[in-house]
Amino acid sequence: MIHTASIGQRLTLLLAGVAALLSLLSWGMVRSLAAQAAAHTQDNVLAASATTIAETLRSEQGAVRLELPYAAFAMLGAISEDRVYYRVSSGDTVLTGYDDLPAPAPGIMGQVVFDTGRYRGAPIRLASVMRVVLAGADRVVVTVTVAQTRDGVDAVISDISRLAGILSVAFFFVAVALSAIAARMSLRPLNQIAASVSRRGPGDLRPLSRAAPADLAPLLTALNRLMERLRLSLRRSEDFIAEAAHRVRTPLATVRVQAEIALRTVSDETEKERLRRIIRAVDESARSAGQLLDHATVAYRVEELARDRLNLAELAAQSAAGMEPTASMREIHLALDLTPAQVRGDAVLLDSAIRNVLDNAIKYSAEDTTVTLKVETVGSNAHLRVLDEGPGLGDGPKELLMERFQRGGNIAGVIGSGLGLTIASEVLRAHGGHIELHNNENGSGACVTLVLPLA
Amino acid sequence: MRYLLVEDNSELAEAILKRLAMDGHAIDHAATLAEAEDCLAAASYDLILLDVMLPDGDGREFLSRSRAHLETPVIVLTARAQVSDRVGALDQGADDYITKPFDFSELEARCRAVLRRRGGSARNQIALGAALFDPLAGTLQHDGTTLDLRNREIRLLEIFARHPGQILSKSQVMDHLFSYDAEVTENAIEVYVGRLRRRIAGMGVRIDTVRGLGYRMETDDK
């Protein structure tokens, strides 16, 4: 599988980028608003001051006279330590103040005009107002200009923008943390689906039915379709095997019956032996076909394992009754020692497991012996034991006997395909149990124990 | 015993018919469910052997349909060893099932088990000397007591009872007694014959050894 960056990481990164942009933007906005507000305040004071000076202008004996009001400058001093300049002029004649203070562009009479400029090496803000003063018969236009350096305003702006900067950085980090949480939370349904798929058993192909956000519906649908296809193909191969078994076994049955009839009618001993060999071969192939089919059936049924409450003792008694005629054919006595034990599971599969183990025991036992079927509870488990008086399981590793087509090393002359224990073992595993194989401690024979958790 | 075989494969049906006839059973054959209904209406049977897959329907459906008025035990013949198949058949009223291909002695053992469960039927009893032998129930009645016989004893007694006064070779006896996968020595037959002799001692019937030829069952009064 190729791993690309996780969706969670991508989402977090994207949201963090957006948060950074928003932080920067809000910082810029706060900064420019602060600058505007500070400039506006300065302008208002400058305007007020200029107007106050202009209002003190009067004419005295045909000349314009001016008394600089203290209040006009006190106002400016109140807001900062900035230097203040002024000039009162009439045309090109400077009545009072700084001669070289730059003059703003002329405006409309009585209205305050603002401007920015540099004076004595520092940026300044200027406000000027024009007023007409009647000096005798003359109308004299007087311009009052008040200017102030901008240090105070700049200080306010930088204070506010530093604060805004700190807030923006804090906002950014909080936003990143929240993005990570949000990414994780929005991915949770996906993770839950992944978990519920991986929790499933190997054969569980039921459609997923958990509730999921609408965005995940296409994924869920695709997943369910895939499982449905898989299930259909499993089912098809199961049907195929069943059909194949039917086609193979009916003619085999004919061959077997014909061979039996021939065996009854011929008298030559070599021919009889030939016929017996035919019958043995038929039995062997029929048995293999049967177990292959059983194996496929088990694989299929495990997928939709029933979880019924069952009494293992009752089930064992039924399975044993079904095997009784087979046992009696070899004069084998089936002894039952059953104590009730409640388990949960699929009766059909468990029956098949018990029969396979019993079949093995009957097959490998000598005639005129006893096979014992025991059900008991041990701790939190139910134990079903099948004990025989046969040759035992040999000395090889016993686990190998549960693998497909593996047969013990000491069973020459007995027909078998090596699938019996595999089938039983798969059934037990699907039920959360397992099979234990031992040689009997007292005397000869094997002991196969099916261990199932109690209900 | 009177059997009804419901099986659509004519080759297999012919062979089963012949094989059962060799054991002295009467047997009717129906190739379809419709024919089976006709047979059941016309005669009564001890046992029905029913195939599952038939041209005009599923044997199991026939079972669930007719189980209500049908008292004859049914053994289902199936080619699918499949567990679900079997349980389905038993649920729908079959008494047992057997998978194809089958050993006739296993079929007999299953028939015997089924008939024993159903209480047997008196018309199959065979008189042996002073005793009454019921091969289906596997019992010998003598002098007011009933003796339960084991599987091989029943089969051994059955072959002698069906051929009274005839010499049966060891090979004939062997084929009747053992399944073909077992390696059997002639010595084993002597063991079983010896056992059966002890069982029937004093019942007015005996098994003689005919040197070099085999065995023969004789009643004492002859």
TrEMBL record, chain A:
UniProt domain HAMP: residue ranges:
184-235
Question: What is catalysed by this protein?
Answer: ATP + protein L-histidine = ADP + protein N-phospho-L-histidine
Q: What class of enzyme is it?
A: transferase
Q: Name one Pfam family in it.
A: 2CSK_N
What subcellular compartments does it reside in?
A: Membrane
What's the Enzyme Commission number for this chain?
A: 2.7.13.3
Domain Histidine kinase: from-to ranges: 243-455
Annotated TM spans: 163-183
The protein in question is named histidine kinase
Natural source organism: Roseinatronobacter domitianus
Automatic annotation (TrEMBL), chain B:
Keywords for this entry?
DNA-binding, Phosphoprotein, Transcription, Transcription regulation, Two-component regulatory system
Q: Known SUPFAM superfamilies for this protein?
A: CheY-like (SSF52172)
InterPro entries, per database record: CheY-like_superfamily, OmpR/PhoB-type_DNA-bd, Sig_transdc_resp-reg_receiver, WalR-like, WH-like_DNA-bd_sf
Organism (species): Roseinatronobacter domitianus
Give the annotated DNA-binding region, as residue ranges. Answer: 123-219
Q: Does the keyword Cell membrane apply?
A: no
Q: Does the keyword Transcription apply?
A: yes
Q: Which Pfam families match?
A: Response_reg, Trans_reg_C
Q: Which residues are recorded with the post-translational modification 4-aspartylphosphate?
A: D51
Q: Which residues form the OmpR/PhoB-type domain?
A: 123-219
Q: Which residues form the Response regulatory domain?
A: 2-115
Name of the protein in its database record? Response regulator transcription factor
